[in-house]
Amino acid sequence: MTYALLCLPFLAAAAALTLISARRPRFGRRMAASAVAAVVLLLLTAVFDNVMIAAGLFTYPESHLIGVKVGLAPIEDFAYPLSAAFAVPAIHVLLPERRRR
Questions:
Q1: What pLDDT is attached to residue 38?
Q2: Torsion of CA 65, 67, 69, 73, to 10 degrees
Q3: pTM for the full model?
Q4: 3-class secondary-structure state, position 80
Q5: Comparing C-alpha atoms, which of 46, 21, 45 is closest to residue 33?
Q6: 3-class secondary structure for 42-64?
Q7: E strands along the chain, which residues?
Q8: CA-to-CA distance for 99 and 38, rounded, in angstroms?
Q9: 49 or 98, which is more confident?
């Protein structure tokens, strides 16, 4: 099992949730906000993963990686923040609205 294969279900779920939420109001605005959030999360991931890997806090077996890296961080590390940036807003608009008392 490679880390890339492990990331695929999360990316697929985020894509599916985003597509399902496309009929909800303000989809374009939500996608723009998700794109900005994704860029920020990806930049933070690049910085902090590189720092943590350089500090020796964790390593990845090369046999489980596809080989593309951003600094020291494998590209697979970027799938989760990317998924979250799009899936979380989609889930939010798909959940039933709670009424305030």
A1: 97
A2: 20
A3: 0.85
A4: helix
A5: 21
A6: HHHHHHHHHHHHHCCCCCCCHHH
A7: 69-70, 73-74
A8: 30
A9: 49
What pLDDT digit, counting tens, does each position of 37-81 carry?
Answer: 999 999 999 999 999 999 999 888 888 888 899 999 999 999 999
Whether 76 and 7 have beta carbons less than 8 Å apart is answered as yes
pLDDT band for position 100 (cuts 50, 70, 90): low
- Residue 68, phi-psi category: left (phi > 0), alpha (psi -120 to 50), beta (remainder): beta
Residue 90 has pLDDT above 70, yes or no: yes
Is the CB of residue 72 less than 8 Å from the CB of residue 46? no
Q: Name the amino acid, one letter, at 76.
A: E
Crossing angle (nearest 10°) for helices 79-94 and 27-54: 150
Both tokens of 74, joined, read 């494998």
User: Can you tell me which residue has the tokens 């860029």?
Assistant: 39
Structure tokens at 1: 């099992």
